[in-house]
């Protein structure tokens, strides 16, 4: 079960898109329009709009994993990433941001939200 917040304002989304240099991933924006970030009572945390681009920049997602966008984390050092090509959700240790270390978490953001857990909760690590 997710703990939701209020929707993100259009102004905040636009500010992040300006910083990103283009539109944020469509399904992520749709989620933000419902809840500006969310988390479970377990480990899954979906980032809110404020600072999401900065977080991607800090972890150099576009440097190490071009074509991916960080949308969350597992509260334990693993990033939740949206593949901008196939739209699947992957998880990777934030200290080893490379494709070889990535694990498929869900076939879509919708599936991840339906599962409501990250890989560490489903697979024990």
Structure description:
- With 125 residues, the protein is an alpha+beta fold.
- 33% of the residues lie in helices and 23% in strands.
- It contains six helices and seven strands; from the N terminus they run βααββααββββαα.
- It has helices at residues 10-20, 26-32, 52-58, 61-64, 109-115, 119-123, and strands spanning 2-4, 38-40, 45-46, 68-73, 78-83, 89-93, 103-106.
- Strands 1-2-3-4-5-6-7 form a seven-stranded antiparallel β-sheet.
- It is globular, with a radius of gyration of 13 Å.
Query: What structural class should be given to the helix and strand makeup?
Result: alpha+beta
Instruction: Indicate the percent of residues in helices.
Output: 25-40%
Indicate the low-confidence ranges by residue numbers. Answer: none
Strand order across the largest sheet:
1-2-3-4-5-6-7
Average predicted local confidence, pLDDT: 93
How do the SSEs run, as a string of H and E? EHHEEHHEEEEHH
Gap between N and C termini, in Å? 20 Å
Give the overall form. globular
DSSP helical segment count: 6
Q: Over the alpha carbons, how many angstroms does the gyration radius reach?
A: 13 Å
| Largest sheet descriptor | 7 strands, antiparallel
Number of strands: 7
Strand content: 15-25%
Features:
seven-stranded antiparallel sheet; globular; 6 helices; alpha+beta; 125 residues
Task: Give the SSE map.
Blueprint: E1 2-4, H1 10-20, H2 26-32, E2 38-40, E3 45-46, H3 52-58, H4 61-64, E4 68-73, E5 78-83, E6 89-93, E7 103-106, H5 109-115, H6 119-123
Antiparallel strand pairs: 1-2, 2-3, 3-4, 4-5, 5-6, 6-7
């Amino acid at each position: 079960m997710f703990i939701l917040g209020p929707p993100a304002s259009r102004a905040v989304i636009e500010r992040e898109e300006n910083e990103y240099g283009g539109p944020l991933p469509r399904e992520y924006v749709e989620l933000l329009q419902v809840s500006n970030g969310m988390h479970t009572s377990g480990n899954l945390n979906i980032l809110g709009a404020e600072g999401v681009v900065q977080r991607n920049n800090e972890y150099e997602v576009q440097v190490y994993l071009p074509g991916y966008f960080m949308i969350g984390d597992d509260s334990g050092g693993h990033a939740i990433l949206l593949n901008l090509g196939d739209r699947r959700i992957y998880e990777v240790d934030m200290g080893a941001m490379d494709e070889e270390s990535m694990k498929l978490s869900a076939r879509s953001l919708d599936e991840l939200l339906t599962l409501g857990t990250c890989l560490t909760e489903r697979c024990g690590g």
